[in-house]
Design goal:
129 residues; alpha+beta
Length: 129
């Protein structure tokens, strides 16, 4: 599979350079730079189809300026991506355990037992009667 996204128009195999989205409530079509990710409700268009784009009568077409220099990732983008990968790879330190408090009556014979933990969420099981 090619990493280059192609124009969404039928029988057009040219590389996409712009993304088209619609705001139906405002009767507006928005044409801007190629989105970072392909979205199911957006259309990627090549240069020729993005230049010839028209909208239905009564609709407004908003064309966002496309700077050719921004089509490639900048050094800041790559640095931010590397920082995000480092942060995700770092092993999280568990939060300190809160001091035990007085037992809270729960209608059973004892306090619930913690079975598992994922982040700040805990799975509790009622004690066996």
């Amino acid at each position: 599979m090619s990493p280059v996204r192609r124009c969404s128009r039928t029988a057009c195999g040219r590389p996409a350079v712009a993304t088209l989205t619609y705001v139906y409530a405002d009767s507006t079509a928005v044409l801007g730079p190629l989105a970072t990710y392909a979205e199911p409700h957006c259309y990627d268009l090549c240069a020729e189809h993005s230049e010839r784009l028209t909208a239905p009568r009564g609709w407004e077409v908003v064309r966002l300026a496309m700077d050719p220099a921004t089509t490639r990732p900048s050094g800041d983008d790559l640095e931010a991506l590397a920082d995000a990968v480092r942060e995700a790879a770092r092993t999280p330190t568990p939060p300190p355990e809160p001091p035990p408090g007085p037992p809270v009556p729960r209608g059973g014979t004892g306090d619930p037992v913690e079975v598992a933990r994922r982040g700040h969420l805990r799975i509790l099981r009622s004690p066996e009667p």
